[in-house]
């Protein structure tokens, strides 16, 4: 099947990578290198660093920069690196964006300013200031459930006119609004909710930014790959097979950071503890995550490449 999609600006399957810490809570750069290399080897062609799943609210600016540098060293040019630079302060966000560029990022992920709940014109001005200040392409992050403020579809359509605002990580849970923006702009959409990977891709998204890919990168990557190959039945099968694990990791009341780190620890991959105010998953939760992971692995066929 010949695809008519434009080349995605940051790859097709991006993992919202956790930030590994040592047992005493320090940044684990060696673990980050190993995890990043593993994710890329297993099918991720992009990594989002210092995002929500990467515990950006509790890492320092210096740690954010060091993480980008370490991961770039580990993956070279085999994957795009998108650096989370969002904050509630436009000036601080600009500084983070400039630092990310110097550290080797290929793009920046900019979340809607939170807590102050700016009106739409202020939201748009914030994003434009960041895009004007940095030479890197910008992925907007629409996640009103965390920020308290939506990037309204009409605002997104206006922002698409900026030459460096090229993509959206969509956690809006407004599928109608998303389709309106897709129909009226050239913005590359990335599903930010794992249950929407196939649905959003089917209506023209560029790919996904997946939390669940921390644990099953090859399986998540196989969903859009099957769709592009014209095997929509296989894509559907892969999406539905992942649903129990998606629910356990992102829909069971705990942040994806907590569940991803719990599962990666059980799998022997770099993770470490979460930083306060987050608390680690309990043993029962960890056992449940591992059980669903193992069920997904057992159910795969050679064709799934998961």
UniProtKB/TrEMBL annotation:
Site feature Part of a proton relay during catalysis, where: 52, 115
EC number: 4.3.3.7
SUPFAM superfamilies (UniProt xref): Aldolase
InterPro entries: Aldolase_TIM, DapA, DapA-like, Schiff_base-form_aldolases_AS, Schiff_base-form_aldolases_CS
Claim: Lyase is one of the keywords in the record: yes
Catalytic activity: L-aspartate 4-semialdehyde + pyruvate = (2S,4S)-4-hydroxy-2,3,4,5-tetrahydrodipicolinate + H2O + H(+)
Domain of life: Bacteria
Entries under Gene3D superfamilies matching the protein: Aldolase class I (3.20.20.70)
Function: Catalyzes the condensation of (S)-aspartate-beta-semialdehyde [(S)-ASA] and pyruvate to 4-hydroxy-tetrahydrodipicolinate (HTPA).
Subunit details: Homotetramer; dimer of dimers.
Protein name as catalogued: 4-hydroxy-tetrahydrodipicolinate synthase
Species of provenance: Streptomyces rubradiris (Streptomyces achromogenes subsp. rubradiris)
